[in-house]
Fold this sequence. Notes:
With 601 residues, this protein is an alpha+beta fold. It is 50% helix and 10% strand.
Amino acid sequence: MRFPPSLIERLRSHFLMSEVVGKRVPLKKHGREYQGLCPFHNEKTPSFTVNDEKGFYHCFGCGAHGDAIEFLRKYDRLSYPEAVETLARDAGIALPKPSEEEFRKVESDKTLYEVLDAACKWFEQQLSATSGMVARDYVEKRGLKPETIRNFRIGYAPDERNALYNHLLKAGFAQSLQAEAGLIGLTESSTPYDRFRGRVMFPIRNSAGKVIAFGGRLLATTTVSKTLPKYLNSPETPVFKKGEILYNIDLAKKSAREGNMAVVMEGYMDVVSTTQAGISYAMATLGTAVTPEHLRLLWQMAKEPVVCLDGDTAGMRAMMRAAEVALPLLKPGYSLRFALLPKGEDPDTYIQKNGKASFEKILLMSHRLSQILWETLSPQYKSDLPEERAALENALKQLTDKIADPTVRSHYASYFRKLLWAKAPAGTKVAPERSVHVEQMVLQHNTAAMESLVQRMLTILIKFPELLHKSQIEETLSRLDIRSQHFDTVRNVLLGAAGHVDIDDRGAFTAYLHKQLHGQLPEPIKLPYKDSLNAEEAFVLWGETVSVYEVARLEFELKELQETVGQAMDDASYSRLVELQQSIQKAKATRTFAPAETEEM
């Protein structure tokens, strides 16, 4: 059912986001936003925020994001129309009656799902039938257990021209519907034939678990033309767009979100084998390269999904295609990693030979996107020739320029410049870029050290109030854990300034701060390149300072815990200690400030 845009906008504006979310999730006021524990993944420290002014919720832990309708869909497990109806009922707003065309569209989708599920059940039955012996031999040789076959609903399409067509016809599904679902094809004379014949069948399901398409693996004994592809997918239909879905997303999404770990592969058997071995967060593209929509799906489950590719030339080409698709979409904290298997191996063969632990080690050792780009391009140029070094720098710049987010783009450029400098021949004098990165700070893990970082953040915003227009700054500033009562007050005043004064008017902004803080502004800290720092550099410096602070805060809490409990550590303390250590590793791995030495971003 489709609703007029005016109705949707009316519903969104009728409620505050905190009203809708607050009925289902406990929230606390925090600056200009509300905070709470995310209902979409397990967490102990709140990373879920609700912004009434902008009308959205966002989780910095799992990436969940959306408006009131999207929240109801996810939290109450509703369809889009059901979520709209729920809001309308609560608001006392009458919904318009759907048109006949809308009724037909809903009914059509429902019937497509029905015919696809009926086909899936029939394929499953054929695998168990006498005619399915060759298919059973195949899946047994591939090491698949009965439970795995049931969970993935693997089946068999007999090597017959009209077996499925006739079965579905008898079950009441018209020829036109079967064709629309991609189950049959038509010859030039309009004679129907089964699209899948002599193949092991892998149902493709959407995130709700409904069958929307199929992938079929051709068996060696089939009598159909040997020129047919080994793997065949359903054509695109009203319910199946191959660039917008991932194989096994329905079974893998929960585990991926809870563990902030998702791995995407190339083949059905890769996913089936690795899942059977205990890798519960594996998914695959469907005969296509990684698309922007794939990335958005993956980033809803994990901040740095791993692309695991076959260890051959085609795998390397696919890796670079995925990297170039990702570059324009990168944002702070969200990127890609790449796991490279030994030459000649794919995830299926590797995990069967080496086991789960060895495969997980490869995933943990996966390379960051920035590192992959450097390691792929730099060997193509000779570092001892200035023309070659210039060509490499230009190639890297072309890639960096594709990144839309200015902060990420800036750090990629800085990272590559450092590597180029390190690659220069011995004795070559190369003037390093004048950077505004946070200098290496020796933190003593004490309150004074922590407060100095907070002072730096506040000083930057007081000197450059125009940065408060940036949503990134506003959202990050709102969620920072600031222990000093005075600095917390300054933070709240800065967050509220835009609603009370023109922050682009420096005089009015400064007067407002003095009035609200009774003249007690934080003592300014000298900033790097104080005399020449511009707003863009200040923006980068602020983000880098936050990165240092986040790591320092976690290390400070870890030290406090270790000193408090000592050796007498109960289960709860031990669990928290492990959690903190993991969080510190993750924060260091994703931090945006650039250290003095060249290192992987």
